[in-house]
Fold this sequence. Notes:
The complex is a heterotrimer.
Chain A: H1 2-17, H2 19-38, H3 40-43, H4 46-55, H5 57-71, H6 79-96, H7 108-132, H8 138-157, H9 167-173, E1 176-177, E2 181-182, H10 183-201, H11 203-213, H12 215-220, H13 225-251, H14 262-272, H15 284-302, H16 311-340
Chain B: E1 6-15, E2 18-28, E3 33-37, H1 44-51, E4 59-64, E5 67-69, H2 74-79, E6 82-85, H3 97-108, H4 116-129, H5 145-156, E7 163-167, H6 175-190, E8 194-199, H7 202-208, E9 211-216, E10 219-225, H8 231-239, E11 257-266, E12 270-278, E13 282-287, H9 293-300, E14 308-313, E15 316-318, H10 323-328, E16 331-334, H11 338-342, H12 349-354, H13 370-383, H14 400-412, E17 418-422, H15 430-445, E18 449-453, H16 457-463, E19 466-471, E20 474-479, H17 486-493
Parallel strand pairs in B: 3-8, 3-9, 6-7, 7-8, 13-18, 13-19, 16-17, 17-18
Antiparallel strand pairs in B: 1-2, 1-4, 4-5, 9-10, 11-12, 11-14, 14-15, 19-20
Chain C: H1 2-10, H2 13-32, H3 38-63, H4 71-88, H5 96-119, H6 124-142, H7 153-160, E1 162-167, E2 174-178, H8 181-197, H9 199-209, H10 211-217, H11 221-247, H12 259-268, H13 280-296, H14 307-342
Antiparallel strand pairs in C: 1-2
Amino acid sequence: MSGKTDKASFLKKLYSRDVHISRLLIMLAAVLIVMLLLKPEKFYSIANFKTMAAQFPEFGIMALGIMLCMITGGIDLSVVGVANFTAISSGVVLKSMVDSNGNLLGYGIMATLLFGIMIGAATGFINGLLVSKIQIPPILATLGSYELFTGIGIILTKGKAIADLPLEYSELITAKLLGAIPVQLIIFVLMACLIAFLLARTTYGTRIYMLGTNITAARFSGLKTGSLLIRTYALSGICAALGGLVMLANYNSARADYGTVYTLQCVLIVVLGGVNPNGGHGRISGVVLAILVLQMLSSGLNFFPQISNFYKSLIWGSVLLIVMVMNYSTENKSAKRVKAA
Amino acid sequence: MAQSVLKVVDIKKSFAGVEALKGVSLEIAPGEIHCLAGENGCGKSTLIKIISGVYTADAGYIEFGGRSYQKITPIEAIMNGIQVIYQDFSIFPNLSVMENLAFNTELADKRVLVNRKRFRKIAEEAIAKIDFKVDLDAKVKDLSVADKQLVAISRALMFNAKLIIMDEPTTALTKKEVSALFKIILALKEQGISILFVSHKLNEVFEISERFTIIRSGEKIITGNTSDLDDKKFSYYMTGREFEDLSFTAKNVEEEPVLEVEDLSLGGCYENVSFSLRKGEILGITGLLGSGRTELALSLFGLKKADSGNIRINGKEVVLDSVAAAMENKIGYVPEDRLTEGLFLSRSIGENIIISDLNSLSGRAGVYDFKKKKSAINKWVKELAIATPDPDNACSTLSGGNQQRVVLAKWLARDLDVLILNGPTMGVDIGSKHDIHKILQSLAEKGLGIIIISDDLPEILQNCSHILIMKDGRVTARLDPKKIREKELSEYMM
Amino acid sequence: MVSKTLKKLTQRNEFYIFIVIMLLSVVIEIRSGQFFTPNNLVDIASALIVPGMFAIGAFMVIVSGGIDVSFPALASLSVYTATRILTDANYKGGMLLPILMVVAFGALLGALNGFFIAYLKLPTLIITLGTSSVFKGIMQGVLNSTQIATIPIGMKQFGLGALFVAENQSSGLTSRMPTAMIMLLAVLFIAYIVLRYTMYGRGLYAIGGNETSAYRAGFNVRAIKFMLYVSVGIVSSLAGLIRVCMMGQCHPTNMLGMEMMIIAGIVLGGTSISGGAGSLTGCMIGTILIVMVQNSLILLGVPTFWQGFFLGMLIILGTGISAMQVSRAGSRAFKKTAGEAAK
């Protein structure tokens, strides 16, 4: 009898240690179980996992950037604009990297990737300046820069797509290492590890959490809030640029209006992952879990031809609403407890 | 005794099993000025919320003018002449004075449409009650703090108020504004309106109230006449502890000054301020709100660069144009408003302690040395006796006094030469206040140069080795705390 | 007196945006000679109807301290549903029934937003992101929406109806002023009266200024917010209906994505994104500027694909300038109080 309650309270403790993560794990398990019951062969196939692993990195990386900005109490709505702008300009660079015979130069891919990352850092730097120095509310600053970068993308392409790229680039990024691991996934994992490291093991991580909690206190504690914000938005820009570079490879073309649904989708992922929109709280593990849950959910749905693909947004929206309502009830409980103390 | 305005009998209230009020009773006569005092978290704000109908009591009852209620709604409380003036005044900064004054009356009358003429009439009537002169069309955010409070008071009077509850009304007021407020309170008393004054400042209790009630951890400790109360008794009732006297005498004072300020000026804030501070001394700077004391401190911490004048640290001239520059010169600053400027409430106690000293806890590229981090946190939790089971807990779980220790720890974690404290014990319990004074004095003995900026005169007299008085941006007097009494000190300030 | 009014004027964003609009018009006129022609002005007015109505709803939400990004999806869903039902029923009647239907759907969907935001007190941006996704999902998934090429005749006629026709004497081009203009004006008028002359409207400003104070003053904060989202649902759905009528067909997705543009226009017009401050005039002026940039660049000889670039610059400059004004005013106010205290 007492053993049973012990176990129950242990589970409860485990659950309440990080409610967001626990909830996401339960959701992930639920999706996996439902799939096991309904579509075991199709869902649990290597091919499906390969496809899934190649699909989510392009928006997953962008979500990581938004997460960083949200931890500082801001938001980056420009990620898709930055991604497309990067993809377009990198596409142009890539096309110019051919010798007289039309073959891609040896360092062409490397140079293109570096160029893309620099574009991302530069655009993020601009966002950071707008937010920290000119003090435009982040939601507006990045909304404006989204239009701006998308606009530049349209000007560069005259509204059309950049296509006919040297195939080597796309082949490299969409290749499967050891026949199974997509390169896109590796890029995502590297970036996620880097950010996880920054957040947990460096003073930069502590600083942005503190900045997001109380910017005035951060200033009074001697933090260089301006440079922290600029660095964070630049990092988000780099994430967005990597997303754009992956998109460039996935579609083997670039256009200013690719992936426009990703903006809201990424914000949704980040909030679902337990990042506090007011700043100061949130973990990368939650965001990664949220990405996985949503990817599995939408891939799983593809195996039900009677359910249209468009149900995805219904399900995602509902999940977000439900999670918000659950957060509301747990927060209310803990708020009451704090008050009583 | 005449029929009481308010009688609260044996009120009990618990939250999630924790008893906040354990049977408190209170009675207020018409025209009485009553002070409700108690340490933070003693239950006094819960009591106010029950009286004003925000919370419902678990047991006990409330009587208004003889009618008794088990539970009341906020509207019923207002109908019975109860008005609360909250610390934040409950105003709308973005709207005009007129709208701020008229809304409550109009809403109580269940009006649907806005009639600007009627609005203006109500507003004029309201300010006439306390003879308050203000531009009705001005936005409230452009008013001074004192005027905002007057807006709140005149608004409260519109409801045939019989009892006005004021929650810590003097917190953000200058001395002059406080005496103006007290005049208004006395005028209200003349009209037979009772005032329940919530405060934990002793001098206010003495000055204004006739009777007092002190609550400690949910229980009423005593009700009595203010004339029977003195300093010692007051602290004892509030805390249940007796305190020894802690007068500071500087020992271990170094020869050479660590900080010298010469003819420092900042346009519109302060002018030609000069002083010097040696290690081991505690310099007190006092003056009214707006005397330039806070701006001076901000300049010394690099947040508001001075226009002219010199600052020397250890004899070397320095430019303090950023917090980083001040920190490089081993200056630390404990800000005025702990909650908004000093702390990261929802983050852990540990992070709050180390936030200003991250660089010494990390290697290249800011990668943490976790061992160092942990030992630094544990060291300061222990050294300053911060009461927490686990430094990973959020800072918000601490009491005010312990939070202030966290802010102190943040600076002590760095190796400082000069620590500037602005209102070091504002809003802190008497017990913690005593402890913080002890800490500061021992830090000075260990060779830290300390500047305390405060308008808590006993605090300045007890803890400082010199006192500077600032008035209208200038230093008007330099005094020795051993040779002066509180009364004279406050005359210098006016 | 005059100088005081002028000073007051120059402190307001609306004034500067108005000047920008004037300058832009003059520049376009000089470059093309086509701006101040009757047909162009009517064209701009006609292009303003739908964004204008959206803006009025979104503006009220921002004043109350929230931000709504769901209104295009909400409008799309309610209008699509109404049009689909009417088309399937082979409806031949007038506009009354379609209007009633979208009002009902809009109110219902708005009530969903209102429930989460007013009753559960959840953050508006996140909730409307969620409901927007849900609305889209219902429309495209559950209802399996496709383009409806022929809308009921009554709706079509309403869309084609003209108050008057303006003709450009020199080019012979003509433009119709749509009947729907009346609806924009009506909604604008009602919103103006509500915001200025009702306790409900002042309550929105009060809530945007300080929600706790509003509650303590006796405003029924929950009911006000709930009603706000219901009415925004209604106004947005009406805007969607007008758009469908004017286009003569119902395209389920082509309103999606308008939200950011609309919010940008509102903020350009001087509305504070944190709530409590802003005027309907500013909201409309800001929206006009956005509509002009979208419609008139071509007259300047600027290729249409420069549009996004200019809009982005406009948002950044507009919000940047007002952000700098705010921080300057802040430091000025500080100096002022300190200076007064020193006297």
